[in-house]
Amino acid sequence: MAGIGFALRKLSNREDLSSIVSGFILSAIVAAGPWILTTAGLLIVSYSSMGYFTHVQDYLLFRSLVTFSFAATLILVALIQLPSTRFIADRFFEMKFSDNRSIYITVTGITLLFGIPLSGLLIFCLDLSPLVRLSFFNLLIVLMLLWVTTSLVSTLHDYGAVGMAFFSGSLASVLGTLLGARYGGVAGALLGYLMGQGVIVTLLAVRIFVEFPGPIFWNRSFLRFLKKRWNLAVLGFVMTLGIWIDKILYWYAPGSEKVVGFIHINHIYDIGMFFALLTVIPTLAMFVFYFETGFYERYRMVFVLLEGKRPFFEILEAKEQMVRFIRRGLGYILKIQGAVTFMVVLNAQGILRFFHADLMALPVFRMGALGGLCQVVLTMEFTLLLYFNQQKKVARLAWVLFLLNGSLTSLAIFLSPRFEGFGYLSACLFSAVYGYLLLDQGVNDFEFTVFMQPPDYLPVEESSSEGTSPLLAPSLSAIPPKVG
């Protein structure tokens, strides 16, 4: 969080209510910007646009295409998102801020190189009108660019511009969808929605080019890094697919509805999960704000002492302060999210009625809220393991989440509709417990990782910077990706 982290720490040091609220909102954008777009934005658009479509089937087609496009693009871009985030972190450590432009152009180019033909193949497999096909194709491309661009949001300092980009783009999506649905049907609604997302991409891209001046070129260093660290691409893909696999399975489970071609929708499961995932956004924001204003400073201090060749007992004391901060932070998150989840479970029926949602989604909503609590803990564990440079442990945890979520969801589908959401809840719960054990082991092995394992950073011949210390490389190269 080299850019936004500075802004968060500056806001927290003011110790006034407006600064804390501003920092919390900024943290929500950084932690869950795409998540907010996926859930809150989609819910608002779906319910507000229902009366603007001529036929109910058109509304279902629009909603299913948008939902599918989010899932497909997030999973596809995950292959490039984690490697690019890691590479940018390495460049920030080397103080090569001018490389941001070239990295952004290169990552965008790679995304479009694979995204355009795959999107084209996808739309030609669906029986859609030419205008709907064109709008759907453009939506897929814009969303890919959005996920790539949001990967660099945390490097920006102008948090006001970042917030305005998300707010104005989301508002434009809602208005564009309503107007498009009234005058252009499904094609118009898709076009209006993607224009709002395009506003976000454009405004964020402008901020990237403004804040990081430098040459624009094809960054071959990133291509070499991507070839060398292909395991990061696999890791990002598995992490994202592990979160989405239960939704995908329920799209093709008994009770789902075929909309067009291979695109299905499970109205009950989708609505319940969308509402459930909204409940964890405040806690994710608190997690980013809390750790960027406290944990990172303690984490960094350990490596400062190492670089200064301070006595070993001082290094151990700094480590203990860091560990105590982690435990206290985990306790805060469990208490806050636990209280939120408890209130949501008790008032789930009233919440669905307030939004005029189908009450058949009530069991899924409750299961999803409990699973969301576990997923917040999982997010914290993924982040900390990446901070401690424990990528093998992160890979094991990601595979456990994917396999458990897929297998337990399949079992729940086979048993009975009464178990809807049980697979997701069980997978997140077991994965969170396993992640805690891995994190505890990673903390205990912290000294071994620092002193005995080779640092995980780019070779000197791939960087023009001098005087880069390998001891500090893990601290700024462990920035985690944003998960869906």
From TrEMBL:
In its UniProt entry, what is this protein called?
Membrane protein like protein
Stretches of Low complexity bias are at: 469-484
Going by the entry's taxonomy, the superkingdom of the source organism is recorded as Bacteria
Q: Which residues cross the membrane?
A: 20-48, 60-82, 103-124, 130-149, 161-184, 190-210, 230-253, 273-291, 332-352, 364-388, 397-415, 421-439
* Residues covered by region (Disordered): 461-484
Please name one Pfam family that this protein belongs to: PelG
Which keywords has UniProt assigned to this entry?
Membrane, Transmembrane, Transmembrane helix
